[in-house]
Design goal:
Oligomer: heterodimer
Number of strands of chain B: 8
Number of domains of chain A: 2
Number of domains of chain B: 1
Strand order of the largest sheet of chain B: 2-1-3-4-8-7
Structural class of chain A: alpha/beta
Number of strands of chain A: 15
Largest interface: A-B, 43 and 45 residues
Largest sheet of chain A: 7 strands, mixed
Order of helices and strands of chain A: EHEEHEHEHEHEHEEEEHEEHEHEHH
Number of helices of chain A: 11
Number of helices of chain B: 11
Strand order of the largest sheet of chain A: 4-2-5-6-8-7-13
Radius of gyration of chain B: 19 Å
């Protein structure tokens, strides 16, 4: 494995490879035709697979998402892409009422192999409706799976798994990751949904994170090594199902837990992890669980407010130091 | 009209099957044996029967809260439907869905849900799947006049027209949107005109005349199969029962919705009586033969009820089964 690929191109490669071997896979969404609208994630797909399987759509999120769900019910493997997560909220009915409930309310007699791809755009003074990260919201819903890959290797494998999964999967990625390169195998491969991974083994504190903040956390862990602080970094990969087994085994070892999560604090996935650890490992904790989240406020536009709003490496370093002392 | 005696009798039987099974639910609802909300299709049988009779087994349909008739007309098993309404493990959705979540993928009944207009975009997607696969299936989306208040209908009409999808938008206009008469939910009472600005062929059909439904359906299906879809059809009809359960929603009763004389005048247009008249006029069958058919179907419904009643409820230990598809 000696080839490096950017995150966005790893997505592109996953789409090219799976569409080439599986004719049931198709993609629809605003911008799939464009060489720039969604980074270069969809570049070249129309030339390879035609406009019947690569469908750029009118701005009708509700019906387009519903159509992806309906096509999946009819046996296709559908991917519907929302270039900005915020606009997918028009489609909560097909996502939550229909796709998530479909298997259960039909007694397991039908499945919905659909991927709801939502891209998080943040900062750049884009304000409240171009910045929302809603993985915690979707993780509340039975029947959905939620993935939030943090690097090029993970995104390729998890996206392949999501497309092949018979259940609806929310795939949340972050535009800030698109340029980041990593070693990515050239062949097609899967990574298991619902399994987290240890990025760095450590003894003093367990740090759980995902997506862009997991890659930021990795930088923090490397910096703290020089100060003699040993952090065990867990990258969730999947927000739902949540790999509590791995988190618990790490917390048993370190006795301390910091969760760094890019959603709002109240009822976030960080809240869920904290509650779960407190329920099962309370007596093993050497210190109270610490959460770093976005404050409970919409994303602001102005740069002075924005720099106060988003989570920084300094905030993570500060929290770790307070936790171990 | 070009319709065989066999087709007419088949339509008649389907309509009777729907009517008898719907009405057989009334007493168990009143006795509290059936608790799931049941929206009876009595009075609207001609639409499901006529339209589904021109579809193949492979074609798809999607329905709504009032869809027992759609499920049965498309070939869904009666016993499994009644068992589902009773919340039994032998139900078509294993007792997890109830009356408003019937399914039979083998017969093309792909989805039935009570979210108003909720399946229109799903039907759109099934039609899109057919276009991608070039499998020449047709999809029918059944929805009511109430669904015309939902924005997703218009998004779906636009996309269906844009991609020339093989879909029939079948609007069953029974003049009431839950508790509101149509005059209180829209200015233009002619729903079929809705689809015209999207560039969709639209027509308005007497939904109580099953032969009219059959003919309109046949033409619409042919257009869709020849890649000349979509088609929008408004079917004018009337629900004999009220919105939910056996309550007839008569003015003066506690639900207080419909004038008594309006209900009476629509009873004159009972779709089953209308077809019966055709059968006698054309001398296809005599009264005796019709009685025999009725008896046969009544027995079928009784057997299905007995099957449902004696079936087991789901095991509580299986509560979490089926949340995810394995």
């Amino acid at each position: 494995m000696n080839r490096k690929l950017a995150y966005s191109l790893a997505i592109n490669e996953a789409l090219r490879q799976i569409m080439a071997i599986d004719k049931e896979v198709f993609i629809m969404g605003q911008g799939v035709k464009s060489p720039w609208y969604v980074g270069n994630t969809c570049k070249g797909l129309i030339a390879l697979f035609g406009e019947e399987r690569v469908i750029d759509t009118p701005i009708s999120e509700n019906a387009m998402t519903g159509a992806a769900v309906g096509a999946a019910i009819a046996g296709m493997k559908a991917i519907v892409m929302h270039p900005r997560t915020d606009f997918s909220l028009y489609a909560l009915d097909p996502i939550i009422n229909q796709a998530a409930n479909w298997s259960y309310m039909n007694g397991g007699r039908a499945s919905v192999p659909v991927v709801f791809w939502m891209i998080v755009n943040r900062a750049g003074e884009q304000a409240a409706q171009h910045s929302q990260a809603l993985h915690s919201l979707f993780s509340h819903i039975p029947g959905l799976k939620v993935i939030a890959p943090s690097n090029a290797y993970d995104v390729k494998g998890l996206l392949i798994s999501a497309i092949r999964d018979p259940n609806p999967v929310i795939f949340i990625d972050d535009r800030w990751l698109y340029g980041k390169e990593d070693f990515v195998p050239e062949e097609i491969y899967e990574l298991p949904i619902g399994k987290a991974v240890i990025r760095n083994e450590g003894a003093d504190v367990t740090l759980v994170s995902s997506s862009f903040l997991a890659s930021e956390s990795y930088l923090v862990v490397e910096m703290l090594k020089k100060e003699g602080i040993s952090v065990e970094l867990i990258d969730l990969r999947s927000i739902k199902p949540l790999d509590m087994e791995l988190i618990n085994s790490s917390v048993l070892k370190t006795g301390r837990l910091l969760i760094v999560d890019g959603s709002w604090k109240t009822n976030s996935i960080a809240s869920e992890i904290s509650a779960s650890v407190n329920e099962t490992l309370f007596k093993k904790l050497k210190a109270p669980v610490v959460r770093i989240n976005l404050p409970d406020a919409p994303a602001p536009a102005s740069r002075t407010l924005e720099s106060e709003y988003y989570i920084t490496k300094d905030m993570i370093i500060d929290a770790i130091k307070r936790l171990i002392n | 009209m070009d319709i065989s005696k066999e087709d007419i009798i088949k339509l008649f039987k389907t309509m009777l099957l729907i009517r008898f099974s719907e009405e057989s639910l009334v007493n168990p609802i009143i006795r509290g044996e059936i608790k799931t909300p049941v929206h009876l299709y009595s009075g609207e049988e001609a639409i499901a029967s006529g339209l589904c009779s021109v579809l193949t087994k492979e074609d798809y349909i999607f329905g709504n809260h009032r869809s027992h008739g759609h499920y049965l007309a498309k070939g869904g098993d009666l016993g499994k439907m009644i068992a589902e309404i009773y919340g039994k493990e032998t139900g078509c959705s294993r007792g997890r869905g109830g009356s408003m979540h019937l399914i039979d993928p083998e017969n093309g009944v792909l989805g039935i849900v009570p979210i108003v207009a909720g399946t229109i975009s799903l039907a759109l997607g099934a039609a899109l799947a057919s276009k991608i696969r070039k499998d020449s299936r047709v999809t029918v989306s059944f929805f009511g006049d109430g669904a015309t208040g939902e924005g997703v209908l218009y998004e779906s009409l636009n996309f269906a027209a844009l991609k020339k999808l093989p879909i029939i938008f079948a609007c069953e206009n029974n003049l009431y949107s839950t508790h509101l008469p149509i005059s209180e939910i829209r200015v233009n009472e002619n729903i079929s005109e809705t689809a015209i600005p999207f560039g969709i062929k639209s027509l308005r059909v007497d939904g109580n005349n099953v032969l009219d439904v059959f003919e309109a359906g046949k033409n619409a299906v042919e257009q869709c199969r020849n890649s000349n879809g979509p088609v929008f059809i408004e079917f004018l009809t009337y629900r004999m029962r009220g919105h939910v359960g056996p309550d007839d929603n008569i003015q003066g009763s506690h639900t207080d919705i419909r004038p008594k004389n309006e209900i009476e005048s629509w009873k004159e247009k009972d779709p089953i009586k209308m077809l019966e008249k055709v059968i006698y006029d054309r001398k296809l069958f005599d009264q005796n033969q019709i009685s025999l058919i009725s008896e046969e179907i009544k027995n079928e419904v009784e057997d299905a009820m007995a099957f449902a009643v004696k079936s087991k409820y789901p095991d509580p230990a299986d509560l979490l089964k089926y949340v995810y598809h394995e």
